[in-house]
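User: For my dataset I need records formatted as: sequence, then structure tokens, nothing else. Please produce one.
Assistant:
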Amino acid sequence: MAGRATGMGRIAAAAIALAAASTGAAGAPTQRIVSINMCADALLLALAEPAQIAALTALSHDPRNFSRADEAARFPATAGRAEDVLALAPGLVLASAFTAPATVSLLRRLGAPLRQLPVASDFPQLRAQMRDVAAAIGQQDRGEAAIAAMDRRLDDLARDMPLPPLSVLALQANNIVAGEGTLADTVIRAAGLTNAAAQAGISGYGRMSLEAMLALAPDVLVIDADGDNAPARANRLLHHPALAALTRNGTRAVTMPSRLWVCAGPDLVDAVAHLRASLRQEGE
């Protein structure tokens, strides 16, 4: 009981700090923004002035998870607990559809200015989300500039790194493949390629038998770079002799660091560039 009382006391004190915090002048950029979702971290780093950011998630400090880990490490990290967030007296909290419902409920009950971001799965949705977040933090001009820069990179990649039409199967641990409507599907299509799993009727992330993969015989097999080296039974398929036989018979095998396409953000273009560059190197 004493531990619970102490925890509730921290929450109460944090709520008082939140209520006392100044929200700034009307129309001014939002201050003390706290992100409790790694993908929201990516949006903040791209759109906000550094002085606006009060804290990012601890996950974004790990370079295995996050492409901008060095940049993220300049900011305090939070584990996303409601009492920790409230203690920062945030002017805005960015969460996601995957944030724990109990945390979201408590933050809302205590009056935290919370914005829960939907999941963006393609570039049109990403552009809309970037504009939404930019408006919420008072950085519309930065938002438009970031979108324009992202689109220029996509155009430059299509022009400077042309590829022949190839079918691609993006494979993860446990026989999971990326079908239609996934970020991997978006990257594959943005690279000018065809998603073999989507063509096979898979929507979202689904399991595919080894036999089905062999029957598809994709031109390219994209393997999760992290899972490829992880010593877990879930990754055994990635080393199956039958997949090796595919590559001997003409299927190209390339790896993709999961951090490049785990989140919808401006840096998703890095995944497109990585895929294109890997295939150009394989073809040379």
